[in-house]
Specification:
It is a single chain. This protein has a domain of 123 residues. Helices cover 59% and strands 0% of the residues. It is built from 54 helices and no strands. Helix 13 packs antiparallel against helix 16, helix 41 packs parallel to helix 44 and helix 43 runs parallel beside helix 46. The radius of gyration is 38 Å and the shape is elongated. This is HEAT repeat-containing protein 6.
Amino acid sequence: MAAVAVEEPEPCGSFRRYLARLGALRPQPGAERPDGGRRTELHLLFDQLISERYTSRGCARPDVCALLAQACQLVHLDQEHLVSKVCQLIHHLLNRFQVMVDEQNLNFLLSYCISALKQCSSWTHVEILQALAALVYNNGPKCQKYLPDLLGKTGLLVQFSDSAQPDVELRRAAVRSMANLCLSVPGQPYLDESYRSVCFQTFLSVLQSSKTSDVDDITFCMLLQNALKGIQSLLNGGKMKLMQTDQIGSLLAVLKKCMFHGLPGLSIEMPTALYPAPLPQYDKRSPIKQEQSEPATFKQTGNRRKKSKGKQKKGEFGEEGKEDLGDAGNESVLGADMLKLHLGDVQNSPCSDPRTRASDVAHVPAGKDHLSSHYTSWKRISSSESEYSDAEGGIQSKMRSYQANVRQGALACFLSAIKSIEKRVLYGYWSAFVPDAPGIGSPQSVSLMTIALKDPSPKTRACALQVLSAILEGSKQFLSVAEDANDHKRAFTPFSVTIASSIRELHRCLLLALVAESSSQTLTQIVKCLANLVSNVPYSRLKPGLLTRVWNQIKPYICHKDVNVRVSSLTLLGAIVSVQAPLPEVQLLLQQPSSSGLNNSGSATPHRFNSSEQWRKALPSEGEPPDNPAGCTSSEPCWLLRLCVSIIVLPREDSCSDSDANFPSFSSVYEPCPLRLESLQVLALLVKGYFPMAQSYFLELGEVACRCMEEMDPSIQLHGAKLLEELGTGVLQQYKPDSAVAPDQRVPVSVVTFWTMMLNGPLPGTLQNSPHATLQTSACDALSSILPEAFSSLQNDQQILCVTLLLGLNHSENPLVKAAAARALGVYILFSCLRQDVMFVADTANAILNSLHDKSPNVRAKAAWSLGNLTDTLIINMQTMGQSFQEEFSDLLLLKMLRSATEASKDRDKVKSNAVRALGNVLHFLQPYHIANPRFREAIEESLQALISTVQSEATMKVRWNACYALGNVFKNPALPLGEAPWTTQAYSALSSVVKSSMALSIPSKRECYGSTEQFCQIWSALVIALQKSEDTEDFLEFKYSASLRTQICQALLHLLSLARSTDLPVIWETITENGDAIKSYVLQYLKLGVEENEAGMHTDLYERERVLKGAIEHLGGIEKQLEGKARVRVSAYLEDVLTNHANATELTEA
């Protein structure tokens, strides 16, 4: 033992001695080549350095780069054996020491290697290329001047990697060097486009090549690996965007081929390219002709970690051999660094019953389960079971390992390709990678699920599931066409039914994989994939039952011993309760008894899940919960709600898994932090989507939110605040005027108990917790979700506390907090108990105007929305409180509001849309003494010009629509000189040019307001043209506006007719003569439909419409009678004819 202890540091010492000897050697003066003694010494020294085992512990790093440069100076290029050895030494030492070569030595060593490739015999080229690969690794930007020699038309790497190259080892070494050149370095320029194209085509041709009989399997695998790594580097580092159909099709074809490379029992022939199917839901144009369809997409979202580069094995630079893909593509469940999941393998799940329930996964026709029938029989192949000898078995095992690495490399490359291809293009390739139900008598097509179900490597199965998950991410629009609710009986299968069939097959295969999987890492990926699928499928268009199978299969995994599986299982349950909520199928699932699906779990189920009341005992709420509304309760609490609350508030009873230690937690008393966070998110989603079910436990859930906000962990506090916000929003939705919830089934207004608990508890402290801006923002949003009736019932000091907190937060330096506070003030200003308080309105106005000038666009947008609400309040107070409020309100503040809103109307569209709304309200609110005031005159003129220019601008539809309504509000103010002031003509001209302005044009109540005859007739003609063009829209989203638009135009036309003067009639009659039939049909339709409510919120029934028409006939008849034949116009007769036709049509309908 003592001898061993003494000799242990010796390798490090001998290694240093050899390096010192090398450093002491100098080129012999006057000799072009070393003599025999020097050559022998170099041979021995190089051999010793290459064979010496070096450990970094306790050893100082030598200046490897300088020593290598010196070694090359000692070796002349005509000494090929020494050249070969010095190149081996370069490769060995750079990998061993993992050093970055400085630019000076890099230039010398690269020049040496390139010269050696040009001058030395071919037998040395493999070693030289290995040295070159080590030199250029992560040094691509420093190699620019050598790229023509390496990657030019006759470049060395291009020649050696050519498909005609007979030496596969040489070709592999060249491809590896090329792949290393393609690695990107952050902050450094990337390869030029021409070199990228050369490399891409080279890698593609390598992947398209077939293995010849004289090439061994392992060498061919390593060649494919290097090519795949090269393409992945091009896609990642060069941020390459694949646009051409042939380029995409060729790449996807080789990736699919390599995905199945060496998969036991499977041999597939792939075409050189795949072709996309046209997707009508993305584009009206038909893409390139298709032969085979398929797609995929990956959208990097804010709460997902970027794909890890993967750890490289020490001393290998990750260049060849087994590649550790690390967490490539793994997605963080909760999106926080501290919650990074450690995905370890767990061979045996404590919930054994899922394996016995494979028959429950899906009810499918006989024969469809053959995909997994042979799964367990050959999934784990051991050498002892094979017919090979031990030596042969070892070779076979090594070969299978290399083949698995190729499959993993292809899948990792596919992940990168998904980010490089436009979504609508990528989904054209859906059927090549996603399974579809096999036809009668036809075999199952190979897909990503084939790998997930059949690959013997757990890591490869996990990679395939990551790719499938990336394809499903953001697929909602593509899958939205799926439909199989009705059995189709056609000669062909509609596209919607094909997609629905694919969705069903995905559910079936993923649930089969779930019950067959033993690796916890892969199991986690299966559950994540299911969550992505569930989030994007239009279940309301499909036959029910799919979610029930997923629900029942995932329940046992909640108690899996690996915490990652438990977290992802909760994520899946959260996806189920959030997708298209509320779904009848999910409502039934939530009402199931808690034991359903868990009755066979045995000891794996924590005791807390079996105690139906223990979770409630842990929450000593003040007072009793509100009466349970009819139809909202069952004999025991909702299983999912009880589960989540138990995980959040109850102490842990046992150690669930070793991997728990990887998670920071508020206290070891509770479950791991990620599990509690996911449970909080599921609770919030449950409250949001199925509030009638959750409201029975309203106070208990409030207590959960309260307890979470009292904890020390900011992430737990944050999600507690989000739960509180959802609870408040749920009550608000019930009390909306258009709510379908019966009054006796709503949460009682005595919900004031709930808010008293919050305001006496952690909420004020959370709002003042300045180090955590996101938490403050969430608490602000929660405070703004209080029911107005509940707020008015709060004690006076609590009301003052809320207002004071919000006014204070409006001065926060953090834009997120400031925006939330500005929005909350915009909510509070509409509360009836606050809006009549002139002092509160003034304080709020000053705070909002302060935020309206903030440098953050988000803050300004929220402030503009709140200013719009505040000015709505001014109009309401003017109508309900009369002159007293107008006189009390500060003229100076009103002027400030007018000027600020005018300035904001020139801001970006999100600010502008509410700024013009505010302008319309303020101009409507102004009194005659304001308008006569010289200080107001200029501000009024500027604000009107701002509105007119906005109507005529190229802003978004919403902005221009709001500007039209704002001008309509202006017209309601009788104190403004409408029809006389110069801006009147401009306003009418602007409104006449915009189809959406018809409601504003029907507001002035006097003919004088419309100005001259010429102007009146221009407005009339513009409305007639707008009526005729109201159906000329190509945008599907515009069709919903067409009916209300025609209603508004017809109202405006009849309004104008009821005010017309005799001088207006000739132009009106001329228009009727030319377009009488068209106008008649639209007016008859207007009378018939009787739309009760248009977008302006006005209620008009059939009798009101008839009354307006009769009033116009009577008014025009009187004018025409006064003319006594002086003019040959009979507009009244035309309108009488319209009314008669309408009356006849109504009688026929009633008959």
